[in-house]
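Illustration 12: Multidrug resistance protein MdtN.
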Amino acid sequence: MKLKLKVNKKIIILGILILVILGAVTYSHARAQKAKIKAVTTVKVSKKNLIQTASDKGNVEANYRNDITLNPAQKVKKVLVSEGQQVKKGDILIKLDTLEYDSQLEKQKINLDNAQSTLKQFLNSGVANDKSNAQNTVSQSQITLENAQRSYEDANNKFKQSETLFKGGYISQNDYDAAKKALDDASNAVKAAENSLENSRSALNNVNESSEDKIANQRNQVALIQADIDNLNKKIEECNVKADTDGKVIKMDAKEDQYPKTGDMIIVDDTSKYKVSVNISQYDSGKVKVGQKANIKLKGSTKKYTGVVTDIGQFAEMKNSSTSSNSSSQESKVNIKITIDNPDEGIKAGFEADAEIVLDEKKSVLAIGFDAIKDEKAAGKKYVYVVNKDNKVSKKYIKTGLDAEYDVEVTDGLKEGDKCIINPPQNLKEGDIVTEFSAGDTGGSKK
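Figure caption equivalent — predicted structure in token form:
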């Protein structure tokens, strides 16, 4: 009986030991299996509206700018408009002093009269009378010169008197200027008479030349003088500085009775429209098309504007490009002009603006975030990891379409509701069992 009890006791102890060992092995295996399960974050594939954009900073410009650079050597006589004033195309903005041109014009008019008179004589007289006529012309020119010289002496005496009176404060600046102009005109008349006398004497010396040659030469002389007169009249007309566009005067450096400084300008802006000039990366510029919509926001303003791409530059230039470290680097960019749809008084040329061009958009398409997509560069394929109902990972190859700021369109390989792993661990592989945490529907990080 004692022997039987001892045997039973040993069997019980052995059974207990076996159970303990089995429990330890099972616990160890369970812990090992649990350690192999990876924690991942998933998102559900869903349909979204995608917008692809290209954006950068730019500056507001007027629809057209009329820049007028003032000549420091030409005195401003009168200013007819002021900054902020609206003007029409052709309106006179300022008048420049024409005194020098007026004097030259009077001289040339006298020369023209004399040249035409000589030509008329050539045409109305025969060869036999040429010498007599030439002599008479010399005599007449001599008389004209003498009269001009007497007029000059008289004008010179009056100017000296005016100069003395002006220095003493007895006459005005205008009276002094009038006396000076009279003296200049008299001097020009003397020079013109001298030229006329010289021409008439030259005609007398050449009286033996053929009548045809003399007439041709004289006609040429008349034409040259007339061309000079036309040129002077044009210069005088150009002294009326005009606007070449409807718009607003935004800069007026001219001051009456003063000579402009180097760099002084008049600027008239056509403010009927405004444009934003923005430089877009060459990588995005190929997608930009005339007519595409754009969103615009002025620096320091909460108001948003819309616009349309109206011009694309024909070449690229190296421009500064901001980086995440607030430093700058050079990047090849293309200039784009965006015409603002709804300009108002809050917009001014020169303002800084942020512009976003809508390159493409699609509505209600399957999409996932960029942070869920992996690349097999050697095969040129893209894939994602999908978690099935039993928490097992499968690898799915996909095809993509339009890429937006955070998400990309999936055209093949996934269906709505699939759960994709975002930022998958490096050691994740197909067939792994995972514990998932949901991040919502196709949330993604910025491209």
